[in-house]
Amino acid sequence: MAKENKNYLSGKEIRAIAKANAKEMKRLEAYKNRKAEEHEFLSQMKSSENILEIEDLHTFFYTEQGVVKAVNGVSYDVPKNAVVGVVGESGCGKSVTSMSVMRLIQGPTGQIVDGSIRFKAYDYKRDEKGNPIPNGADGYEMEEKVYDIAKMPIHEIHRIRGKQIAMIFQEPMTSLNPVFTIGEQLDEVTFIHTPGATKEMAKAKSEEMLRLVGIIPENVYGAFPHELSGGMRQRVMIAMALAAEPRLIIADEPTTALDVTIQAQILDLLQDIKNKIDGSILLITHDLGVIAEMADYVVVMYAGKVIEKGTVYEIFQDPKHPYTIGLQKSKPTMSLDDGTELYNIPGNVPNPINMPDHCYFKERCAKCTLKCSGDYPGMVQVSPTHFVACHLYDGVEDNG
Amino acid sequence: MADEKVLENVTPVYDDEALAAEYLEKRQQKIEEDFKKPFDPDCILEVRHLRKCFPLKKTITGKVTKELVAVDDVSFKLKAGETLGIVGESGCGKTTTGRAVLKLHQPTAGQIIFNGQDITNFDSKQMRSSRKEMQIIFQDPYSSLPPRSTVGGILSEPVEVHNIVPKDQVKDYVLDLMDKCGLRDYYYERYPHEFSGGQRQRICIARALSVNPKLVICDEPVSALDVSIQAQIINLLKKLQREMNLAYVFISHDLSVVKFISDKIGVMYLGSMMEFGSKEDIFKNPLHPYTKALFSAVPNPDPTQKTERIKLEGDIPSPANPPKGCRFHTRCPYAKEVCKHITPEYREYEPGHFAACHLLNEE
Amino acid sequence: MEELKNQQAAPEAADSEAPLDKNVRLMSPTRMVVRRFFRSKLSILGLVMVISLFLFSFLGPVIYTQWGEIQLDESGKTEYSIAETTYTVNGVEYTLRQTTEKYLKDNFLAPPSAEHILGTDNEGYDIFVRLMYGGRISLTVSFIAVFLITILGVVLGGVAGYFGGAVDNVIMRLSDVLMCLPGVPILLIISTILDASDIDAKYRIYLLMVYLTFISWTGTARLVRGQILSLREQEYMVAAEAMGYSTFRKIFKHLVPNVMPQLIVQMSLSLGSMILYEATLSYLNLGVKAPYAAWGTMINIISTNQDILQNHLNVWVPAGICIVIAVLGFNFVGDGLRDALDPKARR
Description:
heterotrimer, A: 8-stranded mixed beta sheet, 4-stranded antiparallel beta sheet, 10 helices, B: 12 strands, disordered N terminus
């Protein structure tokens, strides 16, 4: 330890970080596990058109090397019956945002620090004691409520997880349990989310779901996951997500692990399902092509911040942020005729520890000005639906 | 010796035994003829009828009872300074082809001619000297660097082993190489885990180039990287190719990347070469239905254009149990009866443009 | 036009990346391991236990020279015994108290005092000093055994893992056979043979440990083989192959250093079990024999005289505590090292 390397943290700094982290983690962990009345986490939507509103979300990871601000003030909305695509490179916080919505952030290192996630749920009406009220027939009375997921204690999360919001993961190979048949795993979803479901009901429902995703139930219902190919498993995952009739489906890189021809099948399926079900899809991917084909609205993220959002046409035809422009230009396309060199954004994605105060993209930006060394740019509205966070557009407010 | 193996392994394609025998004989004759042809002096790499099988089941005595044909009858030529792109979906044998060319897998049959030498039956000692002429870059920049060596150590080891420069110049040589690959000199003392994927891939490239190879097999070098970093690496590869007159075999599942970097393209499906030709041939005039379908499946990053897709039904069959006849017939929208029984011949339809499809023979 | 400008701007922008890259400071690999090791209270405790035992055993006899290992306290001792006899004569009860004073040459079973910190045992040896010498034996013997086990395990496991095929089969079946052998009964037989062949009491324990090595390398060999099998599939090994490195270089420069962390963990864990083995052997009177000290033999004293088990705890409890401290200490350190060195267990 005699040779101190300037590139590395000193022991003193490490101890200081650990001490500060432990304190914060303890506080947030206590908040997460607190007991709370329902009214404490009920909220109001800003716009009745939206199913999900994320506002100023901060999700941090308290690591030994410092606080990683994986999501650092993210706001976007998911309208009803729409597909919102979130695009960005690895480490930009797109997955952490969706995991925050599902409250799947692994504690105690990962914590939602601030912000709100408002979700319009269709849930049981509850009496003063918090029990569902039966409606006389064989069900319970239902009503629309707005939950603030970020403020929910962790043990209340079962109200929405899986039932109201379902998730499709990237790895179809590992997201199914290998010791149960597809049928058993699908039936389970119905048993969990529909009180008093019988075996026949569950099976009928599972078969209906399998047909919906283009699988003949007879072949697959009794099969084990390892007997299926990657594309089939991803279809089963989608069927599982649909079985609880969720209002929002989060698809986290649903086609990244698949081959191109199978990806095309799954994308067609998602398009098809979007029209059939009454819900929204939050599609998270790094593939601009997938976004362009699937999404109605696009959110571009970079280093834990939203840098641009708008409709799919605005983002692809009139991108404003230098990062969005560069990202689109640096992807070789099928229609591109070969130039000698591909456009590229220099440098690397910044390390999420010790973020600078100025625009995070400044170091890699070809258009940066003096102003960029100042504060982090705020969101500028360039059209009713198009927002961008870049100093180049300061004062270019949309006037109608 | 290699010839006998081919004879054993060719699958009968006809139910009629007499016809099958005739077909086999004809094919075998052609392969033998090809093997006797002189080496093309312009080409740095020539692969003829490459076949690689992996044993799946063995009896106790070591006799192979079931095998997986990972690569079946693949042939191509590559000139110095050119790039050959190999595209295909998972399980199509593109990685195995790349590794068999480097003799990291011993080919079951076929010929590999590198730099005017038939290296197919070289033993590991003979290979060792040829190794510095041909290198490989891997897909995963995380597992392809030894975790306990510094960047300097990783890069100087091959230089020292192969005596590329005198001992006292090794460090300067490595620093120069790092500069060429866009790595900063203070990275020399650092460990791989401190770097992002893109920087690691640059280290891998620098390692491969440290021995001044003539041929580099790039096995999905950008698939694990972000879009903006992908572009940097592709540009770096192109720049280095110009400077060092490298030949690349660029293996990828990403058609747009292959299109950008390659001069020639081979499309593989389930171990067989479906189509091979120059980039213009393949993209402007694709012959094989699989190539066409593959192109149309790529999502288009332009929301205003909706591409008409050629839909491929079903999944890719398992390479352990490939369909008889044409490998593609189970998913081909134009499949005919003949496709189910006879493996189509891999033929030259236009100069330098090869394909294997029955439909092309009818016109 | 704008494209062109961007192209030119690129190198400068890349330059400006350096400061941002440089101001991010990570933990150095060594510090990361050290930090993860010391995060667990148990591993610190283990380290303290192990270090203090070492100091006690190896430095202790140098500082505390009052008594030697086989030096009897011949200061003599007077033993009093009182016998009471009660008998009744004509209804009156009489008690006869008879005191015997006996002078003995050795000061045995002395209680703890300034002279003997933990007292003396049934022969008159100083227990405190013998604990130190016993520790020397236990620690040396188990270190040698673990060292031998590791060498044997690495060579056999490495060969089996790297070359595979028939070699692998032979080595692994051999290890299967060895794992089936009942350890203690065979030790008893060997010990009898050693007794018969009149081996110096000081060295028999080493011979027994050699036998132990011979039957215990299997665990290490399996670990090394498994590691090498998985490392061989790593792409950097394929890269080393593609580089045309020699087999020797591949094994010793690329494979073995990557097995080291697991080996170190395995070694520290087996140190504990070797100490236990040594104690068991000595307790069964198979290992170190009187008059030489070992922790096991020191506990064995209780079998000679029940009175010691009940009334002279100072004779055998300290040795037991030492064994517990040694085994626990090595296990804690081993667990701590495993968490610190295994990147998969990183949290």
